[in-house]
Design a protein that fits this description.
Helix content: 10-25%
Order of helices and strands: EEEHEHEEEHEEEEEHEEEEEE
Strand content: 25-35%
Shape: elongated
Length: 240
């Protein structure tokens, strides 16, 4: 299992533990409420599962034929469109406990680039990354080793939960997200972006430093083409 150092953005990520003589995956949904903060500690649990898994096919064949992969069902309370539901999950990484000599390998963050929300999609669709021959490459023009922090409001951000402990974006919601951008802004020099309200982005926009855009309730806020926003707080057209 590839694991990578946990940051404050990854406190809910599953981690590896040693239990009953086996390496096992511990997910936050399995942690009693009184120990959740302890689980989230980046000091006590320093790594988390990237879900990049390597396995010997012969070992998988042997386990399947022996009917030995008794995967645990994880009940995970969720709220979907205001309705409380109980999602039943299995975590692929949890199979690690059935394999002899299983280990975790600590890899750099560059091995981990999830797209679970529209904020992640904005990141990978921007000029910060390029896709060539099936490989995603980070733009060397970005001097800061950390990625920008991006927080999008509910107008941009909707996530659908699906089976097998994966989180995917609903196609219609991706279309809604993309409709708000004439083109994805340049974020090479961006530190953080927070967007709330009915905000629409023009083409060839550049974002730098810390940018906050908050449209007033009931007001459509359009960021014009070729705008350069650097360390700005935008609440209306007068701030552009």
């Amino acid at each position: 299992m590839e694991v990578t150092p946990k940051t404050l953005a990854d406190v809910k990520g599953g981690t590896l533990i040693s239990y009953e003589g086996k390496v096992q995956l511990l997910e936050i949904a399995q942690v009693p409420d009184q120990h959740v903060n302890e689980f989230k500690s980046i000091e006590k649990f320093k790594i988390f599962n990237t879900n990049n898994l390597w396995a010997n096919l012969n070992a998988i064949k042997r386990l399947v034929e022996a009917d030995a992969l008794k995967m645990e069902i994880i009940p995970n309370p969720k709220e979907v469109d205001g309705v409380k539901v109980l999602q039943l999950e299995t975590a692929a990484g949890a199979a690690i406990r059935f394999f002899d000599h299983a280990i975790g390998i600590n890899v750099p963050r560059s091995r981990f680039l999830p797209v679970k929300a529209t904020s992640d999609l904005l990141l990978v669709q921007s000029d910060l990354y390029t896709l060539a021959d099936g490989f995603i490459t980070r733009n060397p023009a970005r001097k800061n080793p950390a990625n920008p922090s991006i927080e999008l409001g509910p107008e941009f951000k909707k996530v659908k939960i699906c089976f097998s402990h994966a989180v995917l974006l609903d196609v219609s919601q991706v279309a809604n997200f993309l409709s708000r951008f004439k083109s994805i802004p340049s974020i090479i020099e961006l530190d953080s972006l927070k967007v709330t309200g009915d905000v629409w982005f023009g083409a060839n926009i550049t974002l730098k430093g810390k940018v906050t855009i908050a449209a007033k309730p009931g007001v459509k806020l359009e960021i014009p083409d070729r705008a350069v926003l650097e360390n700005k707080e935008i609440n209306g057209p007068e701030d552009l």
